[in-house]
Design brief:
There is one protein chain. With 192 residues, this protein is an alpha+beta fold. It has six helices and four strands; from the N terminus they run E-H-H-H-H-E-E-E-H-H. This is HTH arsR-type domain-containing protein. InterPro entries: WH-like_DNA-bd_sf, WH_DNA-bd_sf.
Length: 192
């Protein structure tokens, strides 16, 4: 599945909700019913219906097919992509005002807050020192200096690498994972 570029703030906001994000992960593997996803997440299906409906209305989840089953009809859904990336236009100065209640500012704060909470939970509940180096978390802050052309090349390589790392469904012996990657220049650059 290709990468979907999020161009609307309402779509981006939905993906900051931890439950909706988990739903998207489950529906990205293959077409599934809400009941199948509920069973996988060990939740009751009625709790998920309004969340699935919100994702369908936003265009992030699509109806695939209906299948009759024991006097009812099962509806199968799947995500429109396996990866989602914010459109840089959403991050322009008009959307990121100094106002703390600005929707884009709240969205970015929520993305980082959720990642922070997951990482803290991992550290609190795992003996990181006992993990092999190859599977321990990476927390890194990178600074440096490159030309605009080198920056573009690095960005392209990163996106290409992410394409190679398409996440698959969790199978026995596999490690579930999540990550947050930000890659940005520290100031605006005139590339003309």
């Amino acid at each position: 599945m290709p990468t979907h570029i999020i161009k609307r703030l309402d779509q981006a906001a939905l993906l900051t909700d931890p439950l909706k994000l988990q739903l998207m992960e489950q529906f990205s593997v293959e077409p599934r019913t809400t009941k199948q996803v509920a069973d996988l997440m060990v939740l009751k299906a009625p709790r998920l219906y309004r969340h699935v409906e919100a994702l369908v209305e936003a265009g992030l989840l699509v109806f695939i097919r209906e299948q009759p089953k024991r006097g009812t009809v099962e509806r199968y859904y799947q995500t429109i992509a396996s990866r989602f990336e914010l459109d840089p236009e959403l991050l322009n100065a008009g959307n990121l005002a100094e106002d703390e209640n600005n929707e884009m500012t709240k969205l970015i704060r929520q993305i980082f807050h959720d990642t922070q909470q997951e990482l803290i939970s991992l550290i609190q509940n795992t003996a990181i020192a006992e993990l092999e180096n190859d599977i321990s978390p990476i927390v890194m802050r990178l600074t440096g200096s490159v030309s605009p052309k080198e920056f573009a090349a690095l960005r392209h390589k990163l996106i290409e690498w992410l394409g190679e790392c398409e996440l698959k469904s969790e199978e026995e012996g596999q490690i579930p994972l999540r990550g947050l990657i930000t890659f940005f220049p520290l100031k605006a650059v005139d590339t003309k």
